[in-house]
Write a structure and sequence with these properties.
Elements lengths: L2 E6 L6 H10 L3 E6 L12 E4 L5 H11 L4 E6 L3 H13 L7 H8 L1 H10 L11 E2 L2 E2 L1
Parallel strand pairs: 1-2, 1-4, 2-3
Antiparallel strand pairs: 5-6
């Protein structure tokens, strides 16, 4: 049975290293990408045109791929897509990082609050609001 390792988008710098490593470990890398043409470096890797901004769609593609082999994991080499990959991996009961921990690490204000509550010393901080956005 084919052992599939799915990647949600990819950093163009390290993606090929991950794909080659996956192959070396006996997995078939499959890249899910909203703009497959951006990934000309993905030689030998199947690239599927996928709406990667929609968790339900990513989940659907994962479920569909289960008919082609054993989906062994879903991950991303792109910082922006690590959280969505973790969320869908959790839904699909695939190994991966805790989505709540990833979200906490990506939200610097929430991270600083959590560290402060845990007694970890750090500099004073404030959340600034500019228009509707928090920075």
């Amino acid at each position: 049975m084919r052992r599939l390792l799915l990647f949600l988008e990819s950093a163009t710098t390290v993606g090929p290293v991950y794909f080659d490593t996956a192959r070396r470990l006996g997995f078939e890398p499959i890249l899910l990408a909203a703009a497959p043409q951006r990934y000309s470096f993905a030689d030998g890797t199947t690239v599927l045109d996928t709406a990667t901004d929609d968790l339900d769609n990513i989940d659907f593609v994962c479920r569909h791929l289960e008919g082609a082999g054993q989906v062994c994991g879903l991950m991303s080499t792109s910082d922006y897509f690590v959280l969505p990959a973790a969320k869908v991996a959790r839904r699909r009961r695939l190994p991966g990082p805790d989505p709540d921990a990833i979200a906490l690490c990506r939200d610097k204000h929430a991270q600083r609050q959590a560290l402060s509550r845990a007694g970890v010393p750090g500099p004073a901080f404030r959340r600034c609001k500019i228009g509707r956005a928090h920075v």
